[in-house]
């Protein structure tokens, strides 16, 4: 097959830019780097030519080969006119073909028409789900949502809300949010920190902890792809999914538009209040929520067009969201927060067609959140708001957060078969929290555990709402360099590249608020040690006096400026075996290095980390009506920057325990008498005493990166010319993970058993990074200034093997948009189980990445194997739109899912003690019985129905639109997560099983937009 640049017709010479100079018989769907382009392929009569011309001055022409097939690869996403020619005569034309990012669009010409009747042929609109919707070039699990669909579907205006349309994607725990407060998603059983975010090819994933990423203004999204598995070697640093957005670009016609959205407070239904579920206080109100409401307005505008037609284009967009409301906190710390959010987003893109072979794309974007909250006292007895106490300066969320992004991408079509792309960008993050607040008082933690004899049966707190305050100078810088080369030879298209990323995290960390300490109240069964079992234990705190009430002086501090480097190289071959079979074989090699605040590497994972990827598709009938595909791959995940704060910094985390004989009006304990401890004073179960960490002892010497293996088998089939259906099975196995271990005593015992003199063993700090469930080697200081090398296996620690497994079966039925309606049905049955969710733990709000309670010592891992917190056994998703009348469009989005598993976490064993590091009620035991995850039941099913109605009047040429959307139309209010800490049988935690979060009650959004 040959190719040439089209210079015919009314297009100027600049139109002939070779944005994807012919790759001959290149396999369909070959794309460079993180996908921002797509491809066309199909069938026609051999010897004819096919020309694809975009509305941005791009034109490509190829000749149909002797097998009657053609492919046009590396096309920027956009709208195309595809023309079939015989000599100089036009035989057939397909208009308004919209390419899918990262995939191939089949535009086949079933039979040749004559040039004389070509003009009478009706244009066909091809979109992400339109005919033919089976992409026989794709081996991955991809969902692409276009701007045309976003204009119709009733969705919240976030990347994550769009991602939830993908099968296997479920809402993450509401504990966790992204850089600007957006909710997160779990994809195919993985933790919410395991997803990668991209904007126009640049990795925008939160570089500090992996919670979400920076995204586009909603109206600037051209396409969003959600990769739920099976992606190629160009993608890395993700063992969950990929959320990739491609922004809009200017075209040869100028377009302008604006939109106003309003969510009035008056249309919002009341949330339900939370009540205690167990113990003598069952039925008592715990958290009043009925007044927790807010209003929201969103203003957005865009403009795009040619600065120089066929040569230089610009597109700009801006969005400003403002939200204000009130919320009341629980009886444990009763306050009213009067909150205000301003969330601006900006986006700009310049596309310069330099000449026929070179293109430059420059992108700028900003995604911010500005948060302010005034705090007032609240009296639960009278249900009244009290005096103003100050501003919220806790850093949750920060007062200012988000990032600014600048990228440049250069594409050079060196020859017909050789294409080079290079992308460089920088993202600067802000995490600012203002200083101030009531610094005169220590924060009160666990007020519900105060001895009621001194409180009158209630709780006593003060005006300090937070125990921790972050550094206001906290910032980050993330740079990303990608260079990719694509070469076509024969039936092969080989793509290779590098993917380098550097992150600097400066002035990160928190300190204890108030006078530098907080008071934490608790209760243990009378006569039972607060921590440990025997006074000889290295972590031991004796029983509290009387009925077991105690208080501790809590101090916590982490502070550091650290950095990470991530390097990768990859190569992938797409082999078009014949006209029906295509095979993709790829290999990626990642290297990760994490540095402490002295720029010393404490984690160096640079030995080859080979990640093979293998995929194949079979176009069974040769006409894109039935595809069978399979995929197998390995995916590595890097550790983000904040891991250094606990595992490689100078972390300080102590408690000093006391009995007390009273509590004053500010919640401060009176009549303190120390409780005996193994240190004679403050105790840190993980040995975090603020001592700078030796980088040689931060991690096991043979530590390996987290990685996951994945296997997919599926088919897609055409029921007729509009309906398609299919099924897919997915298996994911977490082969290795990274967490920290704190059981220094187990290491000491192993050393003594090995014949090492205990007097020569130096200080063993806690929180060693290691591979859970595997054999690890640790360097332990000796008193001579050297190190002992100690091998520790599962038997030495008392650990089980590490396990996380996901099995999913997806069934779908899809009707493409035909000018009247579009609808898609998805059902996913899945099973996600094991003893480790991943880098975080959703049930107890543990967001310290790779430093969870899990694996700290043996007792907390007993009976840990069960259904994982992000598991949803059943998911039903239905979404679509229907053109009711020429001026009226109705749309719906339905998400039905079974509830997440519950946990009941109590004290350890039948005797309900608190052994070893003594974390308290975090063991998988409940009332003295084993209680693996899910044994306590499940949260209820959720049935979320959202509908919208849009009116586009003919008298305004359909450029003006009025819209109303009702979220949670059925006003179903169900708890989505409950408090799992049970306590002991005799000292029951009265908060146990109290809801933490609920489905958002019904509310309405009104909109008006104008597009010109």
What does this structure look like?
With 1012 residues, this protein is mainly beta. The chain is 3% helix and 47% strand. The chain has six helices and 59 strands. The strands form twelve sheets. It has a 22-stranded antiparallel beta barrel.
In short:
With 1012 residues, this protein is mostly beta strands.
Topology at a glance:
Blueprint: E1 3-4, E2 37-43, E3 49-54, E4 59-63, E5 69-76, E6 79-86, E7 89-98, E8 104-106, E9 141-146, H1 147-152, H2 159-163, E10 169-171, E11 185-187, E12 196-199, E13 202-203, E14 221-229, E15 242-247, E16 255-263, E17 274-275, E18 285-287, E19 293-308, E20 312-328, E21 335-355, E22 358-379, E23 384-391, E24 400-413, E25 418-432, E26 444-445, E27 468-470, E28 475-489, E29 492-512, E30 518-523, E31 549-576, E32 581-595, E33 601-605, E34 610-619, E35 626-637, H3 643-647, E36 652-659, E37 662-663, E38 669-670, E39 673-674, E40 706-718, E41 723-736, E42 739-741, H4 744-753, E43 768-770, E44 776-781, E45 787-792, H5 794-797, E46 804-815, E47 821-834, H6 858-861, E48 866-867, E49 874-885, E50 888-897, E51 905-906, E52 925-926, E53 929-930, E54 942-951, E55 960-967, E56 975-978, E57 981-983, E58 995-998, E59 1003-1011
Parallel strand pairs: 2-8, 12-15, 26-30, 51-57
Antiparallel strand pairs: 1-4, 2-5, 3-4, 3-6, 6-7, 9-14, 10-11, 12-13, 14-15, 16-19, 16-59, 17-18, 19-20, 20-21, 21-22, 22-23, 22-24, 24-25, 25-28, 27-29, 28-29, 29-31, 30-31, 31-32, 31-36, 32-33, 32-34, 34-35, 35-40, 36-39, 37-38, 40-41, 41-46, 42-43, 44-45, 46-47, 47-48, 47-49, 49-50, 50-54, ...
């Amino acid at each position: 097959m040959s190719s040439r640049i089209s210079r015919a017709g009314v297009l100027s010479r600049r139109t002939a830019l070779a944005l994807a100079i012919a790759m001959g018989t290149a396999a369909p769907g070959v794309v460079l780097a993180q996908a921002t382009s797509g491809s066309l392929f199909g069938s026609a009569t051999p010897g004819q030519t096919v020309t694809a011309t975009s509305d941005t001055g791009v034109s490509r022409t190829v000749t149909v080969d002797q097998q009657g097939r053609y492919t046009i690869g590396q096309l920027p996403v956009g709208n195309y006119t595809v023309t079939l020619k015989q000599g100089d005569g036009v035989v057939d034309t397909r208009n308004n073909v919209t390419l899918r990012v990262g995939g191939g669009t089949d535009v086949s010409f079933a039979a040749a028409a004559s040039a004389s009747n070509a003009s009478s042929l009706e244009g066909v609109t091809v979109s992400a789900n339109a005919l033919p919707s089976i992409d026989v070039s794709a081996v991955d699990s991809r969902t692409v949502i276009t701007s045309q669909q976003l204009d119709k579907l009733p969705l919240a205006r976030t990347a994550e809300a769009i991602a939830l349309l993908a099968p296997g994607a479920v809402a993450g725990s509401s504990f966790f949010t992204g850089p600007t407060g957006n909710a997160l998603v779990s994809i195919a059983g993985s933790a919410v920190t395991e997803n990668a975010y991209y904007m126009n090819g640049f990795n925008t994933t939160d570089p500090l902890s992996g919670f979400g990423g920076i995204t586009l203004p909603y109206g600037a999204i051209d396409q969003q792809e959600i990769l739920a598995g099976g992606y190629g070697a160009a993608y890395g640093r993700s063992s969950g999914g990929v959320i990739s957005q491609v922004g809009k670009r200017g075209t040869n016609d100028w377009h302008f538009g604006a939109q106003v959205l309003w969510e009035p407070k008056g249309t919002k239904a009341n949330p339900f209040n939370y009540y205690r579920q167990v113990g003598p206080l069952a039925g008592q109100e715990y958290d009043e929520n009925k007044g927790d409401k807010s209003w929201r307005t969103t203003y957005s505008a865009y403009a795009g067009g040619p600065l120089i037609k066929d040569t230089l284009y610009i597109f700009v967009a801006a969005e400003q969201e403002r939200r204000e409301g009130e919320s009341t906190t629980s009886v444990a710390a009763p306050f009213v927060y009067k909150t205000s959010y301003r969330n601006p987003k900006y986006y700009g893109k310049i596309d310069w067609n330099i000449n026929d072979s070179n293109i430059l794309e420059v992108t700028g974007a900003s995604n911010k959140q500005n948060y302010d909250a005034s705090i007032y006292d609240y009296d639960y007895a009278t249900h009244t708001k009290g005096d103003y106490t100050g501003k919220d300066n806790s850093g949750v969320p920060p007062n200012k957060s988000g990032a600014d992004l600048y990228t440049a991408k250069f594409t050079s079509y060196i020859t017909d078969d050789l294409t080079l792309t290079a992308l460089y960008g920088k993202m600067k993050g802000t995490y600012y929290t203002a200083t101030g607040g009531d610094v005169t008082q220590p924060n009160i933690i666990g007020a519900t555990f105060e001895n009621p004899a001194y409180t009158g049966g209630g709780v006593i707190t003060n005006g300090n709402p937070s125990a921790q305050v972050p550094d206001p100078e906290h910032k980050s810088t993330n740079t990303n360099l990608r260079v990719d080369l694509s070469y076509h030879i024969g039936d092969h298209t080989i793509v290779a590249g590098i993917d380098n990323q550097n992150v600097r995290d400066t002035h990160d960390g928190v300190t204890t608020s108030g006078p530098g300490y907080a008071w934490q109240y608790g209760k243990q069964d009378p006569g039972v040690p607060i921590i440990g079992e025997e006074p000889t234990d290295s972590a031991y705190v004796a029983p509290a006096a009387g009925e077991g009430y105690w208080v501790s002086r809590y101090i916590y501090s982490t502070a550091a400026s650290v950095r990470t480097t991530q390097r990768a190289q990859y190569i992938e071959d797409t082999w078009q075996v014949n006209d029906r079979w295509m095979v993709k074989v790829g290999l990626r090699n990642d290297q990760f290095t994490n540095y402490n605040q002295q720029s010393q590497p404490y984690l160096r994972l640079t030995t080859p980390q080979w990640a093979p990827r293998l995929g194949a598709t079979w176009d069974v009938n040769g006409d894109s009506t039935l595809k069978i595909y399979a995929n197998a791959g390995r995916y590595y995940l890097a550790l983000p920057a904040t891991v250094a704060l606990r595992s490689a910094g100078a972390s300080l985390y102590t408690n000093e325990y006391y009995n007390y004989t009273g509590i004053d009006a500010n919640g401060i304990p009176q009549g303190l008498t120390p409780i005996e401890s193994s240190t004679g004073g403050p105790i840190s179960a993980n040995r975090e005493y603020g001592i700078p960490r030796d980088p040689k002892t931060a991690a096991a010497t043979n530590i390996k990166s987290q990685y996951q293996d994945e296997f997919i088998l599926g088919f897609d089939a055409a029921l007729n010319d509009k309906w398609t259906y299919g099924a897919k099975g997915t298996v994911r196995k977490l082969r290795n993970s990274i967490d920290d271990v704190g059981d220094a005593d187990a290491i000491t015992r192993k050393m003594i058993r090995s014949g090492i003199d205990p007097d020569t063993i130096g200080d063993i700090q806690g929180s060693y990074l290691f591979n859970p469930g595997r054999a690890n080697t640790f360097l332990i200081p000796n008193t001579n200034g050297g190190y002992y090398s100690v091998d520790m296996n599962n038997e030495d620690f008392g650990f089980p093997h590490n396990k996380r497994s996901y099995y999913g079966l997806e069934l779908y039925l899809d009707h493409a948009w035909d000018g009247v309606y579009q609808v898609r049905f998805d059902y996913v049955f899945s099973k996600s189980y094991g003893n480790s969710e991943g880098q975080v733990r959703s049930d107890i709000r543990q967001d310290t990445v790779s430093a969870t309670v899990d694996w700290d010592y043996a007792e907390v891992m007993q009976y840990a194997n069960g259904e994982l917190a992000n598991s949803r056994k059943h998911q039903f998703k239905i979404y679509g739109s229907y053109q009711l009348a020429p001026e009226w469009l109705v749309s719906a989005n339905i998400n039905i899912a079974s509830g997440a598993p519950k946990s009941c976490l109590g004290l350890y064993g039948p005797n309900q003690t608190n052994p070893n590091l003594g974390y308290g009620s975090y063991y998988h035991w409940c009332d003295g019985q084993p209680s693996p995850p899910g044994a306590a039941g499940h949260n209820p099913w959720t049935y979320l129905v959202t509908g919208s109605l849009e009116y586009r009047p003919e008298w305004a040429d359909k450029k003006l639109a009025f819209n109303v959307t009702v979220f949670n139309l059925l006003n179903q209010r169900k708890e989505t997560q409950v408090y799992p800490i049970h306590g002991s049988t005799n000292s029951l935690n009265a908060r146990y099983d109290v809801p933490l979060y609920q489905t958002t009650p019904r509310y309405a959004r009104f909109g008006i937009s104008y597009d010109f």
